[in-house]
């Protein structure tokens, strides 16, 4: 009989483990002792596997239980398969940052990239030098699909609607940002804010939604001179023009050239920005995933 003819879907993996142990021990009693089974239980398991394989597998000799030609053929691939399964489960229950080569995909908004990526990559280079990070940006309506189909491992930023496991990272406020020598001065009034040419963000930005929500009908009176869907050019534009912008305070503090700017309170109250790390429950107990979430949370604690 050939190995390919075994009806594998109906084979209990425990039977294969017992088979490999009998091969190594050359004794049913010895195999049972090693596995913590009685001789009767070991014999019954062997009989079940014999029925599956339609082969006696072992015969008694003066030197112990000797394998049949079919059992000898079966031993190497079964041993290798069980070892692969063992290693897979060990990898699932442990995570070694120093040796791991995993790639983690993180959804984040434009403001979040500046706040998270530099510090996270710096930490990974010292603690997990072979771990890779892929930063993803997408519309919030695609977050659920991305987390469900494993396009992304986790997200950082404004919590999207739906059932996600989450951990609160921080809360933030908005400030009015301008170049240091801006002629508007330090006293910002609502009238000045509305009439001063400003850089606004697309509707996908939480900061933009909070400004609109706070201003209500007056939001249409803003003198918007420029609207962006990315933060890539924001600092340069504000530094070289007389535009102003409502931005998260943490983002401003993270700018390398923040001395070139002034941040003053907005002349109206807005809700606070709340940022979370969130993920699909499927990854909740994954050791590597849990390690990365803890690293992200610690980074924001360090920034307080």
UniProtKB/TrEMBL annotation:
<feature type="domain" description="HTH lysR-type">
    <location>
        <begin position="11"/>
        <end position="68"/>
    </location>
</feature>
<dbReference type="InterPro" id="IPR036388">
    <property type="entry name" value="WH-like_DNA-bd_sf"/>
</dbReference>
<dbReference type="InterPro" id="IPR050389">
    <property type="entry name" value="LysR-type_TF"/>
</dbReference>
<dbReference type="InterPro" id="IPR036390">
    <property type="entry name" value="WH_DNA-bd_sf"/>
</dbReference>
<dbReference type="GO" id="GO:0003677">
    <property type="term" value="F:DNA binding"/>
</dbReference>
<comment type="similarity">
    <text>Belongs to the LysR transcriptional regulatory family.</text>
</comment>
<keyword id="KW-0805">Transcription regulation</keyword>
<protein>
    <submittedName>
        <fullName>DNA-binding transcriptional LysR family regulator</fullName>
    </submittedName>
</protein>
<dbReference type="Pfam" id="PF00126">
    <property type="entry name" value="HTH_1"/>
</dbReference>
<keyword id="KW-0804">Transcription</keyword>
<dbReference type="InterPro" id="IPR037402">
    <property type="entry name" value="YidZ_PBP2"/>
</dbReference>
<dbReference type="Pfam" id="PF03466">
    <property type="entry name" value="LysR_substrate"/>
</dbReference>
<keyword id="KW-0238">DNA-binding</keyword>
<dbReference type="InterPro" id="IPR000847">
    <property type="entry name" value="LysR_HTH_N"/>
</dbReference>
<dbReference type="InterPro" id="IPR005119">
    <property type="entry name" value="LysR_subst-bd"/>
</dbReference>
């Amino acid at each position: 009989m050939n190995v390919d003819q075994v009806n594998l879907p109906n084979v209990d993996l425990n039977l294969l483990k017992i088979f490999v142990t009998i091969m190594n021990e050359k004794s049913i009693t010895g195999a049972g002792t090693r596995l913590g089974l009685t001789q009767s239980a070991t014999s019954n398991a062997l009989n079940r596997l014999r029925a599956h394989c339609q082969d006696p597998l072992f015969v008694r000799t003066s030197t112990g239980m000797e394998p049949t030609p079919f059992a000898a053929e079966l031993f190497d691939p079964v041993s290798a398969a069980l070892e692969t399964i063992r290693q897979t489960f060990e990898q699932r229950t442990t995570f070694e940052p120093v040796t791991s080569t995993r790639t983690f995909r993180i959804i984040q908004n434009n403001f979040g990239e500046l706040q998270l990526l530099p510090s996270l990559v710096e930490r990974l280079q010292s603690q997990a030098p072979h771990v890779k990070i892929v930063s993803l940006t997408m519309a919030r309506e695609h977050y659920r699909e991305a987390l469900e189909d494993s396009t992304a491992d986790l997200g950082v930023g404004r919590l999207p609607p739906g059932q996600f496991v989450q951990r609160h990272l921080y809360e933030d406020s908005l400030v009015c940002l301008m170049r240091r020598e801006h002629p508007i001065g330090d006293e910002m009034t609502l009238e000045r804010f509305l009439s001063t040419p400003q850089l606004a963000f697309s509707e996908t930005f939480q900061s933009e939604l909070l400004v609109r929500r706070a201003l209500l009908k007056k939001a249409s009176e803003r003198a918007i001179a420029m609207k962006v869907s990315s933060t890539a050019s924001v600092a340069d534009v504000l530094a070289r023009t007389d535009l102003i912008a409502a931005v998260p305070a943490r983002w401003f503090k993270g700018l390398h050239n923040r001395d070139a700017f002034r941040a003053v309170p907005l002349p109206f109250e807005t809700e606070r920005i709340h940022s979370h790390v969130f993920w699909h429950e499927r990854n909740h107990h994954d050791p590597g995933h849990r390690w990365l979430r803890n690293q992200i949370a610690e980074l924001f604690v360090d920034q307080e």
